[in-house]
Design a protein that fits this description.
- α5 packs parallel to α7 and α12 runs parallel beside α13.
- 44% of the residues lie in helices and 16% in strands.
- It contains 17 helices and 17 strands.
- The chain has a single domain, classed as Glycosidases (TIM Barrel, Alpha-Beta Barrel), CATH 3.20.20.80.
- It starts with 5 loop residues before the first strand and ends with a helix.
- It comes from Microvirga guangxiensis.
């Protein structure tokens, strides 16, 4: 029932809208997963991968309040369960159904939390979740850069999107835990760093380096830095909304911090606040330790890739570099529990961050879109083979309480869930009890 390291990949279910909501970019459709899903699951066995970042397409599944079309999810998750593959369920990836609108909608958190609970009830054997993928990126691209969904460009729109997205994530965790008290949440979030290009750029870089933590600060109930508190208050967050997040800090005990890292995650900041890609200056090791020092949670490398170039070795070398960084993080005492090459197959229009529909293939997958293995796929398979038995021997005490799908009905698993459920009920009752009066305390 316990695992010491999770080697994973993913099948992306991104669904942002562009062109003022008229065009939806559905990665599962564009990459052929709706047609080839059984073949895609076969590829996991070929790679000896048993953990998959995966989720149903939200816009096709969530039809309205309390209304669902589970047909595709029933087929795919039924097959994952039969194959004993552990899914990390990605419930919302960069977009919402048309009837919800976008992330400016204040009803989104409650609506999404209900969907998350109903998913958990239908697929009770699922234990690992990423309720909302890359919350900071989703809010930034949708409401600060104006690329997706609401396509707004203001601090007010960004804060509105962010507070709705993170509240939805927090409420979803609470609702899932009602159904599955041993659920674990692997919050895949982009790990960023902003380098000042010159002395005049130090201040804007410092602000950006503070802002990068906002989604996880709120999600984990950590008090934000004073400058960011003023930023939130000045742009539409109320004190009550802020204290909602602080009051949910106990949820962090169910969390693994997922850190995504790409060659585009580090930025060079100019004096006017503009930025451009800096390449991998610090690398995954240094930036992950910054996040770990802030939150002190177990870590998983939840996304990375690089486009295959003319030699075919570019992605292979990037895989080696990222794995070296994972080992470095682990060897310096950070509890890192998994690694992910994202994704299983090539993607479409990743070169423009899904903000244009060019239907151009981005060769970033372990397999191409004809489901032929790429050199990085062969190398990842070898890496898993080489390290899968070494890492457990190095970390006898570092285990994650993962229940395999085929173990879900075992009595020991049920007993543990019942114990955790009763513990949560007790905690809930204690939270609801009125505080004792001063006179009662003195007695």
């Amino acid at each position: 029932m316990y695992t010491t390291f999770m080697f994973a990949t993913g099948i992306e279910n991104s669904i942002p809208t562009i062109n003022n909501g008229r065009t939806r970019i559905d990665q599962m459709e564009k990459c052929g997963h709706y047609k080839h899903w059984e073949t895609d699951f076969d590829l996991l066995a070929d790679l000896d991968i048993q953990v998959l970042r995966y989720g149903p397409p939200l816009h096709k599944t969530f039809l309205g309040p309390g209304r669902y079309d589970w047909s595709f999810a029933d087929m795919t998750f039924g097959e994952l369960g039969r194959r004993n593959i552990i899914p990390i369920v990605d419930l919302c990836h960069f977009g919402v159904p048309d009837w919800i609108g976008n992330f400016q909608n204040p009803d989104f958190p409650i609506l999404f939390a209900a969907y998350a609970e109903d998913f958990a009830k239908r697929f009770e054997w699922v234990q690992l979740y990423t309720p909302i993928n890359e919350m900071f990126i989703c809010a930034t691209f949708s409401a600060a850069y104006g690329w997706w969904n609401e396509q707004l460009q203001s601090d007010q729109a960004f804060v509105t999107a962010l507070k709705h997205i993170v509240k939805a994530n927090v409420l979803a965790m609470e609702r899932i835990l009602k159904v599955r008290p041993d659920a674990l949440f692997i919050q895949s979030e982009s790990s960023e760093y902003f380098h000042a290009e010159n002395p005049a750029a130090i201040k804007p870089a410092e602000i950006m380096n503070a802002r990068r933590f906002l989604s996880l600060d709120l999600n984990y109930g950590r008090r934000v830095d004073s400058e960011m508190y003023e930023f939130l208050m000045d742009n539409g967050m109320t004190r009550d909304e802020y204290h909602f997040f602080l009051s949910r800090s106990s949820l962090r005990h169910h969390c693994i911090m997922g850190n995504d890292y790409y060659v585009t995650n580090e930025h060079r900041v100019a004096a006017d606040g503009s930025s451009r890609s800096a390449g991998d200056v610090f690398g995954y090791d240094e930036i992950t330790r910054q996040y770990y020092d802030r939150y002190r949670l177990p870590v998983m490398h939840t996304e990375t890739n690089l486009m295959e170039g003319p030699t075919g070795e570019e992605a292979v070398n990037w895989l080696w570099k990222q794995w070296a960084n994972v080992l470095r993080v682990r060897n310096t005492g950070v509890p890192i529990v998994g690694f992910t090459w994202y994704s299983l197959t090539d993607q479409m229009d990743w070169d423009v961050a899904l903000r244009e529909e060019n239907n151009r293939v981005a060769p970033v997958g372990l397999y191409d879109l004809d489901r032929n293995i790429r050199p990085v796929g062969r190398r990842y398979k070898q890496l898993i083979h080489d390290w899968c038995n070494v890492l457990p021997a190095q970390s006898v005490c570092l285990t994650v309480p993962v229940v395999w799908p085929h173990e879900h009905e075992e009595k020991s698993v049920r007993r543990r869930q019942d114990s955790l459920r009763e513990m949560r009920r007790k905690e809930s009752r204690e939270d609801d009890e009125p505080a004792a009066t001063t006179q009662e305390v003195r007695r």
